[in-house]
Design a protein that fits this description.
about 375 residues; mainly beta; Methylamine Dehydrogenase, Chain H; 5-stranded antiparallel β-sheet; globular
């Protein structure tokens, strides 16, 4: 994932939907108020976090009064705790992590001092499934900082042994569904490093990094945990790697890699795990694939396999309703909803909102 005109360290602008607002429907209540839920976007150029209200019945986004809210230096990634009470923002130029409380009535944010130290240029943040540990990928120092999470206060405590070495040029990370393995993309090494995970402690798997294509930028793990999918931006390809369930060792499968659109930045599954999509920054679209869940091999959708986004999309995530993707378009300075046809896998562009500064990463709570 890259951002032209802004440093690689400013890559991960994040947008997070509160889990209490996970039902995308007409009516209903949430921490964002009746009939709506909340979204948050880190704005590195504003040194703050923007907040939006999303209407449940239409998906329309409106900015929360007082947004953006002041934070650290160049916040690039945001995650929200499942309690809906706290947000973390990785400040890439401050080399630390901010904690914000969320006003459940208004959606306003208030930063809690002090900030938590991280490595150099902390980028993507990742919570494990139980929200017990927070992982921060430090791009410039080539490490991963791991913190235990106090669910009541939101406070972070760095665990013993952290930060852990992550090989050169780490740019993205993902956990296996079981939480036993952590996968890290090493862009300049054209590989993926694998770590075993034990109560947050990371141990590098022998053979890491495992070779993929040129300048890999994003990855995702199959819902089964049996396969890892990696987009290679300089090759315009998608690598498919099988995962040894005992060791975490990766092996490229027969038929890999497959072609994508131009300059793929990210890859994502639909809720069913039957369809896979690459986000192509250079061709301003998404490529859609059906996936053989047994072999792991993706095949382009037969009717239409490319779906237009805004100009220069750089990140995509699934809304908590499971009905649409949220795509951040750097060139267009918009966030666009892409509706998902659960039968055919086709995507339809629907609501879009203009933003003052481009978003480069989106994170949605479960």
């Amino acid at each position: 994932m890259r951002m032209k005109g802004i440093s690689l360290g400013s890559l991960c602008l994040a947008l997070a939907l509160l889990p209490g607002c996970s039902n995308y429907r007409s009516g209903g209540t949430s921490s964002g108020g009746a009939g709506s839920h909340l979204a948050f976007a880190a704005v590195p150029t504003d040194n703050g976090v923007a907040a939006y209200r999303i209407a449940n019945n239409t998906g329309n986004l409106t900015q929360v009064f007082g947004s953006p809210f002041a934070g650290g230096l160049s916040p690039g990634s945001v995650v929200v705790l499942p309690s809906n009470k706290f947000i973390y923002a990785a400040n890439e130029n401050g080399n630390d992590i901010s904690l914000f409380t969320i006003d459940s009535s208004t959606g306003a944010l208030t930063e809690v001092s002090p900030r938590t130290p991280a490595g150099v240029t902390p980028g993507p943040l990742l919570l494990d499934s139980g929200a017990n540990f927070l992982y921060a990928l430090n791009r410039s120092s080539g490490t991963i900082s791991v913190y235990s999470v106090n669910g009541s206060s939101g406070a972070l405590s760095e665990i013993s042994g952290s930060p852990f070495p992550a090989n050169q040029s780490p740019v993205a990370l993902a956990l296996s569904p079981s939480g036993n393995f952590l996968f890290v993309v090493n862009a300049n090494l054209a590989g993926v490093s694998v770590f075993t995970v034990n109560s947050g402690v990371l141990t590098l798997v022998q053979g890491s990094p495992f070779a993929v294509g040129k300048v890999p930028l994003g990855l995702t793990v199959a819902p089964s945990g049996n396969y890892v999918y990696v987009v290679n931006s300089n090759d315009n390809t998608l690598s498919i790697m099988s995962v040894d369930p005992n060791t975490g060792v990766l092996t490229e499968i027969l038929g890999s890699p497959v072609a994508t659109g131009t300059t793929p930045e990210a890859v994502i599954f639909d809720p069913s795990g039957n369809f896979l999509y690459t986000l192509n920054e250079g061709s301003s679209n998404m490529s859609g694939f059906s996936v053989d869940t047994g072999s792991g091999l993706p095949t382009l959708l037969t009717t239409t396999s490319t779906f237009a986004t805004g100009t220069n999309p750089v990140f995509v995530t699934l809304d908590s309703s499971g009905k649409f993707f949220l795509v951040s378009n750097q060139g267009a300075k918009t966030i666009t909803e892409m509706g998902i046809n659960s039968t055919s896998g086709a995507l339809t562009s629907s609501n879009s909102v203009g933003i003052d500064q481009p978003a480069t990463s989106i994170a949605v709570t479960k």
